[in-house]
Amino acid sequence: MKRVLSLALSVLMVLSLLAGCGGQQDSTDDAAPSETGETRDDLVIALATEPTQLDPHYLSDTNSSLVVLNTHDPLFRRLPSGEIEPALAEDYELSEDGTSITLYIRQGVKFQDGTELTAEDVAFSLNRATATAQSEAYTESFKEAVVVDNYTVRLDLLYPDVAVLPLLTQGNNCIVPKHVVEEVGETEYAGNICGTGPYKFVSSVSGSNVVLTRNDEYWGEAPAIKDVTMTYIADESTAVSRMETGEADFMPNISVEQLSRVESNASLTAATSEAAALYYVGMRASSSANPIMAEKDFRIAIAKGIDKEGYVEYMMQGYAETAYSVLGPKIFGYDPSAEEHNIAYDPEGAKAILDEHPGWADEKITFLVPSTPAYSKMGEYFQASLKDAGFNNVQIETLDWTAWLTESQVDNRFDITVYGWS
Predict the structure, then answer these.
(1) Structure pTM?
(2) CA 366, 133, 368: angle at the middle one, nearest 5?
(3) What is the DSSP string of 383-410?
(4) What is the pLDDT of residues 124-139, one digit of tens each?
């Protein structure tokens, strides 16, 4: 079996969790042959960072989503084409005024403890997500989910929202069993997950791996791979070495720097795919470490000093596209006219603003950067880009992934950071 890596790390290039392994099959018997000819039904995935949260409603990072979206199901799924298909909801009906959506729940679906999914679980999950800060971006228009009958839920909205179906495809809106959450407690579900997804949680060792196994009672098409181990390898070169020796089978992301190494190895395959991932530099206009960030012109100067095009051309070698809006072309709701408000890279324009305000060039800018390979390279590149634009005191503070997820939410902690979302 050829081992598969995917090249991502920037805008519009991502490969989904099991895409390199055949995805879902009509039969569970079609396991892949290994290079020695033996039939295998297991997969080892090398991740750069450890999943931080296995409770869907508290999701805030991609690798956690890889576990959640394989152990739980949303009400609808978005296909690679962008189309939306039914999942736990077989159908829906939108009210005439657009302020509610009636969801018809698939019957006969069971959680992994054998309990049947009902409207109580769906309403409980949507209301729980709505009340959770980490899911706020995916529930902002939600008012309340109300049980109509055993297999019907009405989701009332605060206002008509054309994005309600895409929101219901998100990992943060996956359905959890009400009885389990109530039994183990609100904060303990992450250690006792019990979804309806194609895989069951087996075990997790902090700093090492998480293990899943196929849910043979899954309501949908059974996946071809039986056992999945996600192992955490922070050093990318080491991860690729594990791929080369056969100790790992799949890496969701690799950097451009590793591409020639991969392409020279006949046992490895690198694959790229368009997706909706988007990376950006975020600024704290208020509650920043340096109060100078409250000055609009200072922030405009920073924006003029960010060389996005250079990063795509030289660091990504063309394996990405420059985004000119916080919504990329693959994101639902994208409007090309938003790009008219883009602040273009203009180092001379940035210097002119700094020259008009004596002392601004030497103001300290705290740049919080995660220690993962992708973000580290972005941080270093944009620090140099800002220096070329006249900013003399951009200080990078590197944090491991878990610490960054927490501290990037803390007031007065930093001035700028790098984010990613999809």
Answers:
(1) 0.77
(2) 15
(3) HHHHHHTT---EEEEEE-HHHHHHHTTS
(4) 999 999 999 999 999 9
